[in-house]
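Data availability excerpt. The first of two example chains:
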Amino acid sequence: MVPYKLSVNIRFIRFVLLTLEIVHVQSAFRHDVTPSCKATDGECTFDFHINYIMSMVAYNRTSLQGFPVYSNNGTLFKRTALPEGNPSHCCGNTPLSKKEMEEILTIDGNYKFMYAINNQFPGPTIVVYENQKVKIRVYNDMANEAVTFHWHGMFQSKTPWMDGTSMISQCPILPGQMFTYKFTASPTGTHWYHSHHGAMRREGLNGAFIVLPQIKKERTDIPKVDNDVLFMTQDWVYKKSDAQAVAEQNWYMLQFSNNLNTADCLTSKFTYDSSLSTLARPYTNALINGKSKSFSNSSTENQKTVPLEMFTVKTNSSNRFRIINTGITGEYKISFDEV
């Protein structure tokens, strides 16, 4: 079979680490759905360390240094500073290694201060089996913000206090604190999790939560798949924080939010069910699994160079795309071209 690249269209689309805690190991996001534990395990345990990070920054986790990333003639480099105490203020430029390319959050090619789980975005994928006990230890390593996590789609039968809604089912997890979520994974299917405190979920604090059927209880009315992958979409605002975006939305200022210093006024749009849509500039950056790029001549070289998310499929193979919209204000039309 000859592998080929699957092109995905989304219409209407057009990390310096700041923490006082230990820097935690990062593993790059993978879109393949792979069980996190064995089906026979009674409990599946995860550790979430919540901290700050910046997109388009390469980190040396040993020396605790961050290096801005930039594009030059289609190649990504990092700006490297000379050793401390050197009388020269000049900086060097070093091409990124393959490992650095995997770990850097390139997002849409813009620099943005954001949140991350284990230095990863999207957050770590949770893949467990139905009725398996799930234990997630959340460590708030941030300096200022509180946080909670909602496990979107979980029934939380007999454990409503684990639902993660701040000030409703629990008090928020304060900086320097740890909280353990423990519940039963149910029902089966494609779910996700996200921060449920303030306006943090779109700025890094979300991830996929997949519950697989128990062994020998898989569905028989649908064919088995050769590939099972995540397709997570979301809107992205790099020019401002989500706290500001939500405040502008609450005060009905979205039509002015492209640039408050000018007389520009954006036209409101409506969805198919006639409800008001906020998918207007600056809400037109969309990500697939945390990645996007621009093809506009007016964009910066960084925006045009960063990689897109790619899916490799084989001819006559069966593929499952688990599509999750983790955004706040954007709705999308998704099509698979040339299939």
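And the second chain:
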Amino acid sequence: MSDEDDTQLEEGEEEEEQEPVECKLTEQVCGDSLALLCKIGNGLSHAYVKMDLHGKSLTDISIISAFVHVRYLDLSDNKLDSLSPLSSLTHLLTLKADNNRLTTAALPQMPYLQRASFQNNNITTTEGISHPLLEVLNLNNNQIAEAKFDTEALRKLSVLEIRGNQLTSTAGLGLPKLQRLYLGENMITQICDLDKCIALKILHLRGNGETTNQLETLDGFSKNMVALQYLNLRGTKISALKPEIKKIKCLPMLRGLILKDTPVAKEEEYRIEVIMNIRNLERLDKDIFTDEERQEAQELYRQREEEGKLSENNPEGAMFLD
């Protein structure tokens, strides 16, 4: 056999691997996957409410629609391209559908669903996620370019992980009950709508220093973000320390800030400049500020304040000030 034939055979094998062999979920497999016997309905009947179907190479789960009492469902590590059979599982509390071939996470409204994970799929949209009790949502490593969440329906959502997607801004993420938001490894260049996140405590915007989250400015932060305590901007493109750091002075509860691997982190007196502007900050790049650093920042502040007064009396000398 020639090298060309070998190459064609290898390419054919690759194509064949991309097309999953049909694998239907059976009643027998469902039965073997059930666990956790609980009371249902009026408490006089019982049913198994936990079903673990991860890693079974499933392509068709149509039969699952008959298991209406399932509350905890794991469908991870299969080859599913649709979750439509889950529409009858209205008692679901948790759903894991990681590592499949889904292009959407849309489902009919699940009245009791509290946790859902769809990471490592091919999801391109956030539309159709409207579960009123949903608290934790994981959409990491998909292909979402724009966030279009139903903020009215998702009134309980407190943790959103949407790392490793294609978001270019934070538009559409103004969820008022959100407490933790993870946006690392996207393509974000603009902050907006986060002024609506009045309960947000943790915000991750980490880039890789090259192609992801190339933020250059810190416009978009607001005094309305009264709960924000931790902000991770590692690996972004923030390059002007003094003007940009002033834009997050409005965050009254900020205690931890990460600017490691950004251009500003290389500036002289970087830590002093930051603590001078954000007095309540406790850690920068995970290192606690020392008493000596705080004292130095205080002295520099007083020095600049005096220079500022001098410049008011002598405007022509202002050009010599920093």
